[in-house]
Amino acid sequence: MSQFITGVRTVSIPVDDQDAALEFYTQVLGFRVLRDVPTPSGRWVELQPGGDNVIVTLEPAKPGIVRGAIGIRFTADDVDAAHEGLAELGVEVDEILRWPGTPPMFAFRDPDGNAFSITAPAL
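^ thats the sequence. predicted structure below, dont judge the formating
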């Protein structure tokens, strides 16, 4: 059996304004810019959250795209501090969920309305 897919390199997030999104993801969430280069259709923007090996790209959104949950769960060593800090910076955050047997987590939205969650590392 062939193994054609060997991993995930990037996860793309649709954004209306790459400059505004870049500011939010770097200045508010603290992501590090790995690449920001021109392409024929705009720019290729790669960001890295924390010291993880996952890369997030900010892709120009297609017209009519519906915003909502993107299945990305970022991690934070201190979910309570992350929740408080993001709320203080004006980020739209939901309540922290605490269920028996699962790590605490909460959802938040970027300025484009894309929804994500922050979860503590595995129990």
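The chain has a mean pLDDT of 88.
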